[in-house]
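re: ur question from earlier - yeah i can do the single chain one, its not a big deal. heres the input i used so u can compare w yours
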Amino acid sequence: MENNEKISEAELKNTLRIVYDSLEADGYVPAKQLTEYILSQDPAYITCLNNARGIMRNIDRDLLLSVLIENFMKN
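and the output i got, formated as tokens:
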């Protein structure tokens, strides 16, 4: 995931699912933790379980927000 422009929406969704599931498995409320991470860019909001923190660091925040907003507006 070196070039964020080449990440497909499906890859981004799968990546976010891994992070979401890891947060949930570690006892966190995933939506809250992801929101705080997006707002602050502080990786401490993401668990290290399943390398979720490392995975999130490879996702461009602007790209993530753009895809989330586009998908929210479609539904």
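Residues 8-74 form one domain. not sure if urs matches, ping me
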